[in-house]
Design a protein that fits this description.
heterodimer, A: mainly beta, 7-stranded mixed sheet, 4-stranded antiparallel sheet, B: mainly beta, globular
């Protein structure tokens, strides 16, 4: 079946540094990718929707200059957390589909810890 | 905006017990409804879905019926197994939104004891 690979699975960084998280669709072309953030014991919060070759659409309250999303190819989207702070520590999950009505496939998530 | 509310966990059951996880939604349109499952250390997987009122989604012994009158999509299983221990997420997608993005509930952790 379709697989979405997310890397790294876990990252620890120092406050003020930037971290890049990759999301790859391994056996299909992902026209749309979504980035979610999951707080402990809370729901997945949609951060942004990205379509290949165009700017991401951010949800209300998500800082687009802090969470940079690039969807440069049909198999790769990246989320860069810029100038990370401890409050950015969270579990980030990407998902992807190859067309509007196709099932959504999820990566295994990235646990970010900012010290 | 659209939202999903599901019962808080954790839900702890003995093997072969009956499972119900409640889910209700608020939507201005006519959403599609989903249940996703997240096993320990893994990503979310689609468990079942229903796209219109009175539809019943089913998979692996789990069922959920799209109830428009009560805006609910409760997840049920007649006899749970230890391997069903996971976090279950109810979600909706508004078909009027061209991105078909998913709005999730808060998740319910299920723990099944032998």
């Amino acid at each position: 079946g379709a697989v979405v690979s997310q890397h790294p699975s876990r990252v620890i960084c120092k406050s003020g540094t930037s971290v890049k998280i990759e999301c790859r669709s391994l056996d299909f072309q992902a026209t749309t990718m979504f980035w979610y953030r999951q707080f402990p014991k809370q729901s997945l919060m949609l951060m942004a929707t990205s379509n290949e070759g165009s700017k991401a659409t951010y949800e209300q309250g998500v800082e687009k200059d802090k969470f940079l999303i690039n969807h440069a190819s049909l198999t790769l989207s990246t989320l860069t957390v810029t100038s990370a702070h401890p409050e950015d520590s969270s579990f980030y999950i990407c998902s992807a589909r190859d067309s509007g009505l196709a099932p959504l496939h999820f990566g295994n998530g990235t646990r970010l810890t900012v010290t | 905006g659209d939202s999903v509310t599901q019962m808080e966990g954790p839900v702890t059951l003995s093997e072969e017990a009956f499972l119900t996880i409640n889910c209700t939604y608020t939507a201005t349109g006519y959403p599609s409804l989903f249940w996703y499952v997240q096993y320990p250390g893994e990503g979310l997987q689609l468990l079942l879905k229903a796209t219109k009122a009175d539809d019943k989604g089913s998979n692996k012994g789990f069922e959920a019926t799209y109830r428009k009158e009560t805006t609910s999509f409760h997840l049920e299983k007649g006899s749970v197994q230890v391997s069903d221990s996971a976090v279950y997420f109810c979600a909706l997608s508004d078909r009027r939104d061209s991105s078909y993005k998913l709005i999730f509930g808060s998740g319910t952790r299920l723990l099944v004891r032998p």
